[in-house]
Amino acid sequence: MAGDVTKHTIGWIGTGRMGFPMAERLAKAGAKITAWNRTRAKAEPLTKSGIALAGRPADLAGCDIVFVMVAAGKDLRAVTLGPDGVLTAPGKAPKILIDCSTVDEDASLEVRAAAAKLGTKMLASPVSGNGKVAKAGKLSVVVSGPQEAFDMALPYLEKIGRGVSYVGEDERARMVKICHNVFLGVVIQSLVEVTTLAEKSGVKRHAFLDFINKSVMGSMFTQYKTPALVNLDFTPTFTPVLLRKDLDLGLEAGRKTGTPMPVTALTRELVSNLVGLGFTEQDFATLLLQAARNAGYEPKPENVPVSDGLS
């Protein structure tokens, strides 16, 4: 029946900050999942949701559909084409490989070509959101690849987030996600600048952001980031290092297509400066600290209860 997530066996590679809640949601919807993570201990709590654990990615080659959620292109190559990769098991290969990571096009094309030789259809399926968003079931999913593979995978993708957009063949979904993350970087930099301006002018951050969130300029994103900007809780959802990587991917695409991106280029330098100052493991909302220091003051936590809109 439509929406049935018990029909196929599912493999899951990568149970980090994003992969863990995504796999957990799919398991709780009834899917039969076997997962692998480089650090096994991080995946072990998933057994409480009925997920079995594999010893290596190659052990998932017999699954009908294998999801991958890793940090970068080198990691995608490693878990698919490297020693014990899911596409290297003798005589076995998944029917569909779904890569939910945000990686460079070269890595994806290499893996797609290797998958095609084995008869495995590959979908690029990056997601928009962070770990908390994934846990709340509010991820947005963009997909490209063979239509028939998308149709088969759709029930599973729908259980991961609140909306799935199919944008065509090949690597188109990756470009959509790169454009999305470029926009993310530009928006957060703009948001911290105006928040700093408001605070320096005597307005409390929580009051300013309350107004923004209720205005035409407010969004799900501004509300997500409000607790971090108000109370300076920079528990990472997405780090400046990862944001810089995606800004670089966007600028590279701009060069290839002859698309000027001056605002993105400036934002990239500001994010790179933040990384250079040692902000590598915190949330990218730490751009607020840089904006405030450039304005000549140190922001303090306001210790005001504010909603992120997820609960």
Features:
311 residues; alpha/beta; six-stranded parallel sheet; three-stranded mixed sheet; 12 helices
Fold topology:
Blueprint: E1 9-13, H1 19-28, E2 32-36, H2 40-43, E3 52-53, E4 65-68, H3 73-81, E5 96-99, H4 105-117, E6 121-124, E7 127-128, H5 131-135, E8 140-143, H6 147-160, E9 163-166, H7 172-200, H8 205-214, H9 220-231, H10 240-257, H11 262-276, H12 287-294
Parallel strand pairs: 1-2, 1-4, 2-3, 4-5, 5-6, 8-9
Antiparallel strand pairs: 7-8
Helix pairs in contact: 3-4, 7-10, 7-11, 7-12, 8-9, 10-11
Would you mind describing this structure in some detail?
With 311 residues, the protein is of the alpha/beta class. 47% of the residues lie in helices and 11% in strands. It is built from twelve helices and nine strands. The strands form two sheets. The protein has a six-stranded parallel β-sheet, with helices on both faces. Strand 8 (140-143), helix 6 and strand 9 (163-166) form a beta-alpha-beta unit. The radius of gyration is 20 Å and the shape is globular. The model has no long low-confidence stretch (mean pLDDT 95).
Q: Please report which band the strand proportion falls in: under 5%, 5-15%, 15-25%, 25-35%, 35-45% or over 45%.
A: 5-15%
What is the number of strand segments?
9
Count, helices: 12
User: Which stretches of 5+ consecutive residues score pLDDT under 50?
Assistant: none
Distance between the termini: 31 Å
Q: Report the radius of gyration as a whole number of Å.
A: 20 Å
Q: Let me know the largest β-sheet.
A: 6 strands, parallel
Which structural class do the helices and strands define? alpha/beta
Kindly report the average pLDDT value. 95
**Overall spatial form:** globular
Which percent range fits the helix content? 40-55%
Strand order of the main beta sheet, please? 3-2-1-4-5-6
Order of helices and strands: EHEHEEHEHEEHEHEHHHHHH
